[in-house]
Amino acid sequence: MFYRTATASQQTVASGRQSSVLHRLAPQLLAARPSISQQHHLNAASPAQWSSANRSAALLGLTRAGSLLAMSCLADEAMAASYTEEPAVATSSFAAASAVATQLPAEGNGKPASTGPMLLASGAFVLPHPDKVAKGGEDWYFIAANHRAVGVADGVGGWSEVGVDAGAYARQLMGNAAVVADESTASAPDAQVELSAQEILERAYSQTTVRGSSTACVAVLNGDSLGVSNLGDSGLLILRAGKVAFHTPQQQHGFNFPYQIGSADSMSDSPSSAQRFEVAVQPGDLLVLGTDGLWDNCFDEEVASVLKYCGEQKMEVAKMAQVLAHYARHRASDSKFASPFAYAAFQAGYAYMGGKMDDITVVICQVQQPAKL
């Protein structure tokens, strides 16, 4: 169900703007729609065959993506004001964006050879669950002041059942990660200091003192090599020339039970359990970091289509993050959408249809050469 209803005047304005957006967006969305033969194959497939290799054929709901994306691109004021259960200021109060850039070091130690320094232009947007707007949701993120490290974290909601703020751990963890990343380069801000995503995660974890637990994904750019440490079901996607080049796999103990790090009384996993990756990147690549509120509601191909449209509209990365978050919210609200979460539930033996309402945090970074920023 949708959690907001536009006024009559807003609906009139929205209708005209949606038509314009849909007209421009329709060709690429139709191109991404599964063919009749693909749909037949999907219907005949067993749950074990529903894997990332054929998820593009599973996008039966993508035919409606045009209208959903159009809704996401409407005036932010109208979108926020149309909520009936939350104040108009809520969306912007917990959203944040930052354009960042710096000169990055050359690679070594057997990693891909650097072609020279590259930069990140980054933006972030946090869209809390409609029921958690007052406290800002349970997700958070960081973009370090040295402009070389980013991350997202998703607080485990079960803590609220015992009177603990489930978002406090994620917020402190990400705040600590930002400090650790900055301290790593503070002594030699102009030198080519290599950052480690895993070290940032582990040191931030050791400094986090509040009760709770969360998933986490941290990424750092060293030259043209991206280091990633991901624990749980948050994650990072790389888009190159509009195509999916890389996506971190999820770490799950069981269905809807991701790996997590937390306080001593949380019986959580060790940060050393994080999966670690080194991926060569190129100028123009888009990095998409998100909590499970994004990945449970959007297939990779949908994310690529939305950001392709954003790029064609010359949007800044902060606006891209905002549009993608709202797109995921619409998917979460669709009770008839065969979402990634629904497919995962089916594979685990549960009957479930629709998106999954949740906090949604998106960080988008574009790899750029210095002259481009």
UniProtKB/TrEMBL annotation:
Q: Which UniProt keywords apply?
A: Hydrolase, Magnesium, Manganese, Metal-binding, Protein phosphatase
EC number(s)? 3.1.3.16
Magnesium among keywords = yes
Quote the InterPro entries the UniProt record gives.
PPM-type-like_dom_sf, PPM-type_phosphatase-like_dom, PPTC7
One Pfam family here: SpoIIE
Q: Which reaction does it catalyse?
A: O-phospho-L-threonyl-[protein] + H2O = L-threonyl-[protein] + phosphate; O-phospho-L-seryl-[protein] + H2O = L-seryl-[protein] + phosphate
Enzyme class, spelled out: hydrolase
- For whether the record's keyword set contains Repressor, the answer is no
Recorded GO MF terms: metal ion binding; protein serine/threonine phosphatase activity
SMART domains linked to this entry? PP2C_SIG, PP2Cc
Family recorded in the similarity comment:
Belongs to the PP2C family.
What PANTHER family does UniProt report for this protein, alphabetically?
PROTEIN PHOSPHATASE 2C (PTHR12320), PROTEIN PHOSPHATASE PTC7 HOMOLOG (PTHR12320:SF1)
Protein's UniProt name: Protein phosphatase
Please name the taxonomic classification of the source: Eukaryota, Viridiplantae, Chlorophyta, core chlorophytes, Chlorophyceae
